[in-house]
Design brief:
Catalytic activity: guanosine(37) in tRNA + S-adenosyl-L-methionine = N(1)-methylguanosine(37) in tRNA + S-adenosyl-L-homocysteine + H(+)
Radius of gyration: 22 Å
Strand order of the largest sheet: 2-1-6-5-7
Subunit structure: Homodimer.
Function: Specifically methylates guanosine-37 in various tRNAs.
Number of helices: 7
CATH topology of the largest domain: Alpha/beta knot
Family: Belongs to the RNA methyltransferase TrmD family.
CATH class of the largest domain: Alpha Beta
Keywords: Cytoplasm, Methyltransferase, S-adenosyl-L-methionine, Transferase, tRNA processing
CATH superfamily of the largest domain: SPOUT methyltransferase, trefoil knot domain
Shape: elongated
Largest sheet: 5 strands, parallel
Order of helices and strands: EHEEEHEHEHEHHEEH
Bound molecules: S-adenosylmethionine
Length: about 240
């Protein structure tokens, strides 16, 4: 998968050199490009923001540097030809659709994702409208709260999407037994020793009875989901 990120803080993404995603990059499974939005400015101060039309607090990201940067990324992919099949451009935004595990799974099958990290009060609306004339565009929220910028949201999305790309996580079975994969939260996990600080591992997990273990885990999943996230059980 090719991933391009547009940001005014490219150093945020240095962490993509380490751990499983770093290995995936070394193995050529993920090809990453990080673009500094300020490189597309023309003034001495490398300005990317300006005051909002209509008044109001804060600053808005100017369209010109975004247009120039995205033009470069999208034309390199040849997206003008058929934008239903070309890159998918994702702008993290608290006003977007909420990111979920099923969205991560869907996005893990894309060939080319482009992430545009907003800052300040966000990006001029025309950037979304203009980009949508030549690529698929989605506004995606990490949750119902407001971050200072899109970088943390993009890191979370890349991690969730990246680990679902075949070859990134060593044991693919570990991916299907996780929270949200079957609509429920995961059951509690234990490892050795069997007793620690007076706390014992549930005896069923030491029984060797696989059917009983599966039934216990299922019951724990349901109980935890009912208690912590009853909304997940709504039809
Ligand atoms: N004024 C915007 C609003 O009320 O919708 C919030 C702007 S926020 C301070 C700056 C940037 O952070 C946004 O453009 C977006 O890129 C990112 N951001 C903030 N909260 C987010 C969230 N919950 N999910 C995804 N991105 C978020």
């Amino acid at each position: 998968m090719r991933i391009d990120i547009v940001t005014i803080f490219p150093e945020f993404f240095d962490v993509l050199d380490i751990s499983l995603l770093g290995k995936a990059r070394q193995a050529g499974i993920i090809d990453l490009g990080v673009h500094n939005l300020r490189d597309a400015t023309t003034d001495r101060h490398r300005t990317v923001d300006d005051t909002p039309y209509g008044g109001g607090a804060g600053m808005v990201m100017k369209p010109e540097p975004w247009g120039k940067t995205l033009d470069g990324i999208l034309s390199a992919d040849g997206s003008d030809a058929d934008h239903e099949k070309g890159p998918l451009v994702i702008f993290p935004s608290p006003a977007g659709e909420v990111f979920t595990q099923s969205m991560a799974r869907e996005l893990s099958t894309e060939e080319h994702l482009v992430f545009g990290c907003g800052r300040y009060e966000g990006i001029d609306q025309r950037v979304f409208d203009d980009t949508a004339t030549r690529a698929r565009v989605r506004l995606v929220s990490l949750g119902d709260y407001v971050l200072n910028g899109g970088e943390v949201a993009v890191m979370a999305m890349i991690e969730a999407i990246g680990r679902l790309i075949p070859g990134v996580v060593g044991n693919p079975h570990s991916l299907v037994e996780e929270s949200h994969e079957d609509g429920l939260l995961e059951a509690p996990s234990y490892t050795k020793p069997a007793s620690w600080r007076g706390l014992d591992v549930p005896p069923v997990l030491l029984s060797g009875n696989h059917a009983a273990i599966a039934a216990w885990r299922r019951e724990q999943q349901l109980e935890r989901t009912r208690r912590v996230r009853p909304d997940l059980l709504q039809p």
